[in-house]
């Protein structure tokens, strides 16, 4: 038998085992859009995602230029690099979209989110909730004899960690703003 013999069914040496140019591993990306602030723009952006089966993990929108009537939409989504490139290209074709930036690939960015968490409990659980809030630099924005509402800002991972610790202490409700992000530097 020659040294070039390849076992039948082995695809590792097959000429037909072509590797895709893009990875098939899903990645989390933060995409920032500058859009004209007019009726229907947000619906068109969301429609692009829902119509193609893409998921939006976080969505924030606010007017950033009152005189120029421009809004910033920040979207956190997950997909393969090929899907992310497709999303950016399709977003760029929407008439009201002025700019599309993938903050994940354009450089280091700062991401922050605000959350409010209602924790219901008494006794030791109440004391522990206050202790953890102090460690995480969360503020008490409302207090009753049986509950606290904490306000916390930070990276989404920080908020996730705080919520995970509050669950056994009586986390009853959570409201999150979604990610706001900017590129660092010039």
TrEMBL record:
Xref: InterPro entries: Acetalactate_synth_ssu, Acetolactate_synth/TF_NikR_C, Acetolactate_synth_ssu_C, ACT-like_dom_sf, ACT_dom, AHAS_ACT, AHAS_small-like_ACT
Catalytic activity: 2 pyruvate + H(+) = (2S)-2-acetolactate + CO2
GO-annotated biological processes: isoleucine biosynthetic process; L-valine biosynthetic process
One GO CC annotation: cytosol
The protein's assembly and partners: Dimer of large and small chains.
Annotated function: Catalyzes the conversion of 2 pyruvate molecules into acetolactate in the first common step of the biosynthetic pathway of the branched-amino acids such as leucine, isoleucine, and valine.
Record's protein name: Acetolactate synthase small subunit
The organism of origin for this protein: Ruegeria sp. PrR005
């Amino acid at each position: 038998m020659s040294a070039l013999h390849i076992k039948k069914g082995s695809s590792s040496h097959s000429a037909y085992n072509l590797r895709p140019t893009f990875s098939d591993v899903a990645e989390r990306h933060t995409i920032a859009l500058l859009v004209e602030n007019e009726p229907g723009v947000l619906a068109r952006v969301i429609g692009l995602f829902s119509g193609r089966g893409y998921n939006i993990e976080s969505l924030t929108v606010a007017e950033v230029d009152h005189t120029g009537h421009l809004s910033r939409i920040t979207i956190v989504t997950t997909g393969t690099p090929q899907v992310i490139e497709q999303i950016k290209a399709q977003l760029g074709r929407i008439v009201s979209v002025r700019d599309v930036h993938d903050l994940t690939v354009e450089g280091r960015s700062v991401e922050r989110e605000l959350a409010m968490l209602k924790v219901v409990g008494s006794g030791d659980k109440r004391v522990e909730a206050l202790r953890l809030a102090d460690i995480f630099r969360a503020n008490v924005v409302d207090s009753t004899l049986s509950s606290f509402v904490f306000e916390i800002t930070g990276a989404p991972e920080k908020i996730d960690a705080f919520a995970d610790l509050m669950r056994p202490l009586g986390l009853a409700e959570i409201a999150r703003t979604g990610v706001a992000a900017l590129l660092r530097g010039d």
